[in-house]
Structure formats: structure tokens, C-alpha cells
Amino acid sequence: MVRVATAQYPVDFLEGWNHYVDKISAWVKEAASEGAQIAVFPEYASMELVSLFAEEVRQDLSFQMSEMQRLLDDYLALHRELARQYGVYVIGGSYPVRLLDGSYRNRAYVFSPQGRVDFQEKILMTRFESELWLISYGDQLKVFETPFGAFGINICYDSEFPLLARRQVEAGANLIIAPSCTDTPYGYNRVKIGCQARALENQCYVAHAVLVGDAPWSIAIEENCGRAAVYTPVDVGFSEDGIEAIGEWNAPCWVYANVDLARSEEVRVRGEVLNFRDWSNQAVAANAEIERVNLGTP
Asked: Any idea where the CN hydrolase domain is (predicted)?
């Protein structure tokens, strides 16, 4: 059993670096005080750091992406220390990281209580990211092993494509973590539906974190909405609607759920349906030639 905290994390205009330290520290402390062993922050939560820069930086997306690199080491050190201090696996708010070739990747960093730091890069970019932010596609999927079981990360848009989570689940993940940043209910619901579909077809858990609140000073994360949640297989022994826990719309908070990852293995063998097992049965029809049937015209 593992207790997961997934954030409805509010964007703030920061008064200084210490304001950010105090804010993140308070959030991790609260999650740990409620017994959380995994704490998930949403996609692009790190972008509130742009509020520390001058107006000309805040109004230039390329400039702010470049300036963000100056804060990366401090960001990593802070989250690493908080994971160690509170004994929690922390998935930090994703960060646009510049590579040696000058390109950017959207990375969700994972911090372990033992001091280990790794990351999952976003694989698929939305139009906004690829056309305006010029963020490059990631090219590697990872599965993170913990004493509680293994998890994979699908960052926002990635959760809307079934083959990514499928690869991670086949590699041993029984929990998919989906940090997201969506500016409209349409975007939020696309990710929500994707998360529930991944839980259904893989008979696994999915933890969805969201960014909330308005940031009129930002041209990147000016509007944010959603509800954090933990989704489950839809089968006997789980919630009838596949929702283990879900927050109130746009309210800053942690959403908590106790997750028994071993139950994913059990439901894949004894469930009313066996979605995970039957995945490969799609292949025959999916690869067959399509027959077009003319039913006539009026």
C-alpha cells in the first residue's frame, strides 16, 4: 500500500526566491504530515519562477526559457533536500531544460528520499509547445522502481496516447503519474479522459496532478484549471466509476488516495474483464484490410 498525494497547485506571483522555497516546503511538509509517500506536482508548476524576473523577461517566452536555466540547480537542490527531509518521493513541477545543443525538453524530475534524482521527458508536444515554445520531443520512456512498486510518468498530452503508458505498464509499472497544465476545461477533460482510459485498458492506477489559478503576468501559464485525481481500474473491488479520489474544481489542495499496487496484478487475472490481457487481441482486426460497405444513398 502506498499513499499518493497529487496536487491542485496554485500559480503565485513570487516575492523572491525565499517565497518559493517557503511555498514548496510547506506543500511537501503538508503532504508528508498526511502520510503521503509519493507527492506529485503538476506540469509547468516551475514556470511561476518566471515571476522573479523583470517585466521584459516575463513578456518574452524565449527570454524567460533561457533565464529559467539560471535557477535549475537551485530548483533541483531544493526538491532533493525536501524529499530527503520528509522521506517522500517527490515528482517536481516539470521544468523546461535546455540541452547542450540548445534545444529544450520538458522534464518532470523525480526525487527520492535517498537523494536519487532522475527525470521523465515529455514525449509528445502540443501545438503550443512545439510551435511557440519550440520544445523538442522526448525519446525515452522510463519506469521508476520504489519499495512500494513501480510507476511511470506521462506528462499531460502524453496521457492521451495509449502506447506510452502501455509500454511502461508492460515493463512493470502499476501506477502512471500524469502531471498536467491545461488552460481550458477542454484541455483538462482531454487529459482526464486519457487518464481514465489508461487506467481502464491497463488495469492500473493513474494519478493526475493539475496547475490551477490565473497568472496575468505570464504569457505561458496565464490561465490554468482542473481537478487532481487518482483513477483506478473499473472493476469489482474498485470504485464503480474508476475514481478513487478527486478534488474540487480549481481549489488549491492536495488530493490523497491509498493505492494498493498489488491489486492491479490481481484484477488482471480475476477481473470481470481482462483488458490488460486482451490488448493483443486487437491486432488481428486492427491490421486487417478495411472493407468498405456501401449501404446505398437516399
From this structure: 2-261
pLDDT band at 14 (very low <50, low <70, confident <90, very high): very high
Tell me whether residue 118 is in a domain: yes
- The whole-model pTM stands at 0.96
- Is there a contact between 109 and 95 (Cβ–Cβ < 8 Å)? yes
Active-site annotation holder among 121, 122, 181, 204? 122
Catalytic residue among 48, 129, 156, 192: 156
Residue 219 sits in a domain of what CATH number?
3.60.110.10
**Secondary-structure percent of the chain, ordered helix, strand, coil, rounded to 5:** 40, 25, 35
The question of whether 121 is a catalytic residue gets the answer no
Q: Domain for residue 287, yes or no?
A: no
Whether residue 23 lies in the annotated active site: no
Residue 122 a catalytic site member: yes
